Amino acid sequence: MAQPSKILLQTTIGPAADDWSIARFSLLREHLAGLSDSDGEAAFEVTARDRGRAGEPDPILSTLDQSGFDELWLFAVDVGDGLTPEDCAGISRFRKRGGGMMVTRDHMDLGSSVCSLGGVGEAHHFHSKNPEPDEARRRIDDPFTTYISWPNYHSGANGDVQRITPVGRLHPVLRNPEAPGGTVHLLPAHPHEGAVGAPPGDPSARVIATGTSQVTGVVFNIAVAFEPSDAGGPAIAQSTFHHFADYNWDPRQGAPSFVSEPPGHAIIDGPEGRRAVERYVRNLALWLAGRDVAEPLRSRKDDRATLEAELEEALEDSFPASDPPAVTLRDDRT
Fold first, then answer.
1. Domain annotation covers residue 140
2. Quick count: other Cβ atoms within 10 Å of Cβ 14?
3. Which residue range(s) make up the domain with 143?
């Protein structure tokens, strides 16, 4: 097979035990690193890291265009100061040379440093920077966490799942032949998702999926896709990093102490939601690398489950429960 695609999972804050640092995206890292081709070779080489010292150019992001990475998954978890101008320039040059990017953030102004990124940054709308162009949408959608202002679309509790709707021609990252309708139709829910939209005047960008507020019924954008063009490689702008966080894939993993909303448990009560998001990130990793999403990949986790089932079956065949005792003791003394 070809060399594995190299993925950088990167946050915009330094290491912090009580924040959304890269350690809280371990299930995503493990899933991507555990995907293999039909020959059993790793499909992706995954590096996960937090940014370097705040206020200084990050040694990786500022020179990303000179790296060997094929794609960047940027989790903007800062309060507006996570990326320096040098970082943004390095990331923009990376995409210009054909690198794939997934850029995500959260509610209000969380992650607003991505606004400085050319193209993909313009797809992200915040409270204080690049607000949604439709003034009617600049309103509080989540009335429960009152200290968080718009944008804050309420798709459900952390730990629950939301139903998403494909928009227009089905995008490759949403294909799932194993699901009803052949699409990824579920993603993890979050009480206050951010806002994304296709930048006007960019023919390479379009909204590919929407969600629906569980409070107001408002339809909001989940993901914007940028097709490869003269402007750069493929990219996705995602409404919240909570679609990828450990806490939202399995709330038993825990969250930072400032998370106040009680979690749900739908994603651990049934396997459908977890399978859907794993399919989505698999597709995303392939598409951002310029590969076909129909490429057959196996999960090492599934391989282990298959092996364990085969071993259990073999043991049952060797020692069936109905076998008579191996030795029968008799006392023939009279």
1. yes
2. 16
3. 5-318
